[in-house]
Amino acid sequence: MNVTSGRDSHGYVTESVKDGALLVVEFMRIEDAASVLRLSEREIYRLMDEGELEVHEYKRRKLIEPASVHAVAKKIREGKFATSEAVAA
Fold this sequence. Notes:
It is a single chain. This protein has helices at about 30-35, 40-50, 65-75, 85-89; strands spanning about 1-5, 10, 15, 20-25, 55-60, 60-65. With about 90 residues, it is of the alpha+beta class. It has one domain (about 25-89): Multidrug-efflux Transporter Regulator, Chain: A, Domain 2 (Orthogonal Bundle). Strands 1-2 form a two-stranded antiparallel sheet. Strands 3-4 form a two-stranded antiparallel ribbon. Strand 1 and strand 2 form a beta hairpin. Helix 1 (about 30-35) packs across helix 2. The longest helix is centred in the last third of the chain and has 12 residues, at about 65-75. The radius of gyration is 15 Å and the shape is globular.
């Protein structure tokens, strides 16, 4: 699966040309998570601040656990993230 973020293409699960083994990326960048979830980077930062996304810091980078991105996607599918507009209605 390749996801395009800006001008770069990022593969999260790729197949090795040499031996056919699957290579899995251990962490996602903020722009990667935004592309996968189809959310803005600002929304990703909000989810990080609220503890919805598990983040590790390495030097000046923030690296997101892919499992937490999948957990957020599941909550979105189940309708567990209600917007303030929907709650007010």
